[in-house]
User: Fold this.
Amino acid sequence: MPQPKENSPIKRDILFRVHLLYAAFVLIAALVFARLIWVQLFSSEVAYNAERLEGRIFTDEIIPARRGNILTRDGEPLATSLFRYQVEMDYGSPGFDSLRTFREQSDSLAKLLALYFRDKSAAAYAQAMQREHTPAATASPTARIRSCRAPKGASPAGGTGCGARSS
Assistant:
């Protein structure tokens, strides 16, 4: 069996074509990489388009959680969500530190409470508020108001102060 020559013209031609193809692929890859670097770092058009599209694509929206029932397969409730409301008053706010202002405005509060809860009349609410907020009910009305104020530096949302409860 004859051995092929090591430096035959066919072999040189094939190797030349392979090296040429290899160099072409490396050159194309270098051009693509250089264009990628140029577009990402030096092109102002990309930054402009990114800012324009960001407002159309990404939006921040707070979606409240939908509460409901957790049911079994046959429709029986395992857990239900019940709304709970807690009404609190800040006795350190303006209006509560003046007995005269409180007496002037307590009747409108009593009317609104009576309309909302519908369990007592406005007069009953007004009488209860007057009874709770008279100087005879406490030793000193100003002492009661001062004792309900939050200490300096404490925020009402932090849970300190008069009537604060953790939920």
Q: What stands out?
A: Confidence is low (pLDDT under 50) at residues 137-167. The CA atoms of residues 7 and 13 lie 10 Å apart.
